[in-house]
Design a protein that fits this description.
Blueprint: E1 2-7, H1 16-25, E2 29-34, H2 38-41, H3 44-50, E3 55-56, H4 68-74, E4 78-84, H5 86-94, H6 100-107, E5 111-116, H7 120-123, H8 126-137, E6 141-142, E7 146-149, E8 155-159, H9 163-175
Parallel strand pairs: 1-2, 1-4, 2-3, 4-5, 5-6
Antiparallel strand pairs: 7-8
Helix pairs in contact: 1-9, 4-6, 5-8
């Protein structure tokens, strides 16, 4: 399976490396898309070190393909966004395409899964809840965040799920073993 792993600007972005490695360990090809905010938490070099696949950081940064956002979609089976911030969830729910990841999302026509990770109050905000409901109604898989200690010193729901849980969910979605 060919996977696009979108990483957004959450403190849990470092855990995306474990997700990348788990997919690779199981024989899947992974291309990584890092948003500008994600790069504030973890540098592209970290993903490049662990990934023989491509790591992309912007619409026109470091590659020669002017229609990358289209071409990468045709060769991939899964778009996984983990962690998914309130920002990318809002863009996805409202059709906003102002960076490489959100543009890829609009062009992607196969399985899409998001794993939200954010502060518990942000997650419970009516706008975020509405956006997640809109995505789910459109057939996008949503992996519920876990409860526990959050980076902001709060306790609550908002933690990025364990990479194994994310991996298993994605495999089941791609194979049709589970629906939305």
């Amino acid at each position: 399976m060919k996977v696009i792993l979108g990483v957004t600007g959450s403190i849990s972005a470092y855990r995306a490396v474990d997700i990348l490695r788990l997919f690779q360990k199981n024989g899947h090809s992974v291309s990584v898309i890092l948003t500008r905010s994600a790069r504030e938490f973890i540098p592209a070099l970290t993903f490049e070190t662990f990934s023989p696949g491509k790591v992309f950081t912007g619409m026109f940064a470091g590659h020669q393909d002017p229609v990358l956002h289209i071409n990468i979609c045709g060769e991939s089976d899964l778009l996984l966004i983990a962690p998914a911030t309130a920002n990318i969830i809002g863009k996805m729910a409202n059709g906003i395409a102002d960076d490489l990841l959100s543009t890829i999302f609009l062009a992607f026509h196969k399985t899409v899964v998001v794993a939200p990770a954010m502060n518990c109050y942000m997650l419970e905000n009516p706008a975020v809840k509405d956006n997640l409901a809109r995505l789910q109604a459109r057939g996008i898989g949503i992996i519920d965040p876990e409860e526990g200690s959050l980076a902001c010193n709060y306790e609550g729901k908002g933690r990025l799920p364990d990479p194994g849980k994310i991996y298993d969910y994605c495999l089941k979605r791609v194979t049709g073993a589970i629906d939305v």
